[in-house]
Amino acid sequence: MQTAVSEVKELLNRLPEESSYEDIQYHLYVIAKIQQGLARAESEGGISHAEVEKQFEKWLSD
Questions:
Q1: Backbone torsions φ then ψ of 15, nearest 5 degrees
Q2: At what angle do helices 4-14 and 21-44 cross, to 10 degrees?
Q3: Total-model pTM
Q4: Could you read off the pLDDT tens digit of each residue along the chain, which spans 62 residues?
């Protein structure tokens, strides 16, 4: 697992030079949310593909 500092450095190296502070903040926010979701899925367990399909069917039929 990478440290936060190494991930930020990697992100900064990938972004264009003309990126604004807002661009950088947005990318950091997205990375943080993805990491939170992955951690939650790992700790609580995910839902099966079949369960996702059931939920989509329910949402689409309403």
A1: -80, 150
A2: 130
A3: 0.68
A4: 789 999 999 999 999 999 999 999 999 999 999 999 999 988 988 888 999 999 999 999 86
